[in-house]
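Entry 0007
Protein: Secreted protein
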Amino acid sequence: MAKFQQSRTQSGVRLLTAIATLALALSGSTYEATSQDAVLPASAQAMTAGEVHELFSNKSWKWENGAGRMKAEGRRFSAWVDGENDKSWAEGRWLVTKTGQMCLDATWHSASGAFPARTCFSHMVDGGTIYQKREPDGKWFVFRHVPPQGGDEANTLLATDLVSGRLKDMKAAVGPTMQPSKE
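Output (structure tokens):
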């Protein structure tokens, strides 16, 4: 019985490690952008759903150790992460809201199991400059300056598909996964 309990504890630790890896990957360069935290101007307004859709539609968001793809058709989202400690992949949907949010709603798969996750980013605009923050407790930063600058996070949104070619390999590397049990 002790061996079974130890195995369950190790699985839980691996799952938490995978979640932490995915959280950092999903924040991508955004995580690094905290050194560029910005004060949101009082005149900033939420981007419209159409503006947010245009920004992300049919783009790959390149992360430090992976990428996510937001397809226009069916609003399909897929991603892969090849982290130091874990490999993961995801499939689901992406959505936009009237209040300027873009959310990635997907099931992530790793050697530790499969789990659903929703990650949302809010977007505001002021004079063409786009501000972004990860919800619920991220900090606002300049996503795209006017005029654009080399270090803008928006530069990591690419029209090239960085996901489809790697997804099959990532699925094979991770192997079959199951939803973690709810206790």
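Curator remark: The beta strands are 45-46, 59-63, 66-70, 76-82, 87-96, 101-110, 113-126, 129-134, 141-144, 157-158. Residues 8-174 form one domain.
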